[in-house]
Specification:
The chain is mainly α. Helix content is 74%, strand content 1%. The chain folds into two domains: 65 residues; 235 residues, Orthogonal Bundle (MetI-like fold). It contains twelve helices and two strands, in the order ααββαααααααααα. Strands 1-2 form a two-stranded antiparallel ribbon. A hairpin with a 7-residue loop joins β1 and β2. α5 packs across α6, α6 packs antiparallel against α9 and α9 packs antiparallel against α12. The longest helix has 54 residues. The termini are far apart. The N terminus is likely disordered.
Length: 319
Amino acid sequence: MKISKAMISPSDGRSESSLLREKGLIKRFTDRYSESRGKVIIFGSAIIVIVAVVAITLFLTLQGLRSFFVDHINFWTFITGTDWNPDQTKNPSFGAFAFIFGSMSVTLLSALIATPVAIGSAIFMAELAKKWGQKLLQPVIEILVGIPSVVYGFIGLTTIVPFMRVHFGGSGFNLLAGAIVVGIMILPTVTSIAADSIRAVPDSLREASYAIGATKWQTIWRVVIPAAGSSLITAIVLGMSRAFGEALAVQMVIGNATKFPHSIFDPTATLTTIITLSMGDTISGSRVNDALWSLGLILLIISYIFILILRLLSRRRNA
């Protein structure tokens, strides 16, 4: 049976063209509505992130400045002093330089420990064994990233600390033990970014190096690494910023002594460890509590410095 055109025409008298126009308007309206809703969600998410960062910064700044404006602790003595004894009733002392020095020392030593291994592993994956090297090391890196901090600390407590005690004397809890644990923790971060940076070097540079008679090692050392230099530095700084904020793993192996360390084999403390150890034993609004908030403010400022360095390196790389 043939179907006539009248059988499919609209029963309310509207033409097919009017129906098509109506459907087009509805589709256009829904598309605009979906686009507007998507913009609201995206801009709302961005605003929430910005507000959260600003709120945290303002809150920590106001709490951290109470030590100097409310409790009248001398700022210069707080920054440069090495005697931390806030529980003393008659003459309490608030010298945070030992903790600042401990945090920076752990960060720098962990970077020195992790960087050669990380860049060597990145070169192996990106240059020497591009296929099976990545298949071999990538799962290992992912496993290292997924291990919790407390596990790193427990391994350091049961292996590194006894090793330090036997071979270097003392209790075994020292600055070097903390640096080794943190260096292992930041190793996958530096390795992943360094490998991506080496892969991003154009093949034309390698081919030009081979064309003038350079060997593979000469090409890697004198062409590839200098070409990826700024990106490699970015990877190292990012790993250092990760190391600077670590608390639990360092706390388990560093000794948590409030005195200034005179060697890498002396126990000490960092900004993060002294905050986590002492904050639960203080009363909100007390001088000790305000001093710990000031330590947190110093930690935030130094973290922002790391972020600023990363931004400058990224801008230099893209220039």
